[in-house]
Design brief:
422 residues, mainly alpha, 3 domains, two-stranded antiparallel ribbon, 6 strands, 49% helix, 6% strand, globular
Length: 422
């Protein structure tokens, strides 16, 4: 069996696209053999616009750069140049690959998957380093898992790409429910809708989908993801279909996002999304995925039978949320879809509910370390990495990089917690 010890490590500060860097642009550095602090103090010629690019790329974190780098203004103006050590520190602070600073002009970084976020999103003009690096991590994990499946001779997932644009969302949602086993009878025995979300993720995992829920970049708790930039994304692949949920988003939003991204997998379309249960999509693909997601969670025929229009809307939303084991936001959306709320009433009700749910926004840190790691990487993925390492198909170094930690004892304990090792 082949060993994966030479596969690419995950670099949490590496964007998803890499601009070419010609060797001629390194001529500003004298590579005469020197040692120690002398090399670190070597001045490096960098185009001023690259500092502007890196600051803009850093987004909201840019305001802290001036205090950390007192000569930053001079670097921007081209009146001074940093030492190699200063440039390395600046690259780490802005989460930019240091090789980019030797280019003649700023690179154009593009998202590697279709961007289906709404036009009103303020982040559309430039993806943040956190988003780019999160995508890079997930794409590398997907590539590893795809090779893992092929090595073991596992068949492709037949549901990926099985839907067509013209398919009726009602039977399509029923097919997804049947594949996962997430029907109303299954949910009837689950205590709360937050427990139902946990079960929803487990069932998707058991169906062969890599579900990763994380509110930070990799395992770096200092780099928190922004749910206003994106709520999740789907990476389609017949062997390694992957869904990422922004763990910094509310639990109420995560359930709808998971249903929405599952629809993307059935349509066979990778995409980056920011539509929540109370939002209305603009693109045709997002509209279709929203309809499937809503029907998957709350079938309209059942809702019409259960809905009691004579009750106050907040009471009815709470009652139906308990019935369907979904968030009240999803229920409000479905009541509006059924014609039970006008546009104005829907906006008013969702505003009140969002204010009530605000204190319950999810966080990705804290709690049991192994449970958090499994959620961030996905249980299916984590089990595959641990078992491959113990069976000699993957190196310990590769496993630690894929899962985001360095200690091999931690890898063993993770395997025990997942039931892979004893």
């Amino acid at each position: 069996m082949r060993n994966r010890s030479n596969s690419k490590p995950i670099m949490t500060d590496m964007p998803t696209t890499h601009a070419p860097c010609s060797c001629k642009h390194l001529s500003s550095i004298d590579f005469t053999p020197i040692h120690g602090d002398t090399f670190a103090m070597l001045k490096v010629a960098v185009q001023p616009e690259l500092f502007e690019w890196a600051c803009a790329r850093a987004g909201s974190a840019a305001h802290r750069l001036d205090a950390r780098f007192p000569r930053l203004d001079a670097w921007r103006q081209g009146t001074a140049q940093p030492t190699l050590k200063q440039l390395e520190d600046f690259a780490r602070a802005t989460h930019a690959p240091i090789g980019y600073f030797f280019l003649p002009s700023p690179p154009e970084e593009r998202l590697p998957i279709p961007d289906c976020r709404t036009l009103g999103n303020a982040h559309l003009s430039r993806p943040s380093p956190d988003l780019l690096d999160t995508l890079a991590i997930c794409l590398q994990r997907q590539e590893w898992y795809r090779d893992h499946c092929r090595l073991l001779g596992e068949p492709p997932r037949s549901f990926v790409g099985s839907a067509r644009p013209g398919d009726d969302p009602v039977p399509l949602a029923a097919r997804i429910r049947a594949t996962l086993g997430f029907d109303l009878e299954e949910r009837r025995h689950i205590p709360t809708w937050t427990d139902a979300l946990r079960r929803f993720i487990e069932l998707a995992d058991e169906a062969g989908i890599l579900v990763m829920v994380n509110g930070v970049v990799g395992s770096n708790n200092r780099r928190k993801l922004d749910p206003t930039e994106f709520r999740g994304f789907a990476l389609t692949d017949p062997f390694a279909p992957l869904v990422f949920l922004n763990g910094a988003d509310s639990k109420a939003a995560q359930m709808f996002t998971l249903a929405h991204e599952l629809a993307h997998l059935w349509y066979g379309q990778s995409a980056l999304s920011d539509v929540g249960p109370t939002d209305y999509a603009t693109s045709d693909l997002e509209v279709r995925c929203n309809r499937v997601a809503a029907e998957l969670l709350v079938p309209m025929n059942t809702l019409r039978l259960e809905y009691r229009p004579n009750l106050p809307v907040h009471e009815e939303a709470a009652r139906l949320a308990r019935r369907f084991k979904v968030s009240t936001l999803v229920v409000l959306r479905r009541i509006a879809d059924a014609g039970g709320l006008s546009s104005e009433q829907f906006l008013e009700a969702t505003k009140a509910e969002l204010e009530r749910l605000a204190p319950h926004r999810s966080t990705s840190g804290g709690g049991d370390f192994y449970a958090t790691t499994a959620a961030r990487c996905g249980k299916r993925f984590a089990r595959a990495v641990v078992s491959s390492t113990w069976e000699g198909r993957a190196s310990f170094t590769e496993a630690a990089r894929l899962l985001g930690f360095r200690n091999m004892n931690t890898l063993r304990e993770l395997g025990v917690s997942l039931g892979v090792l004893v």
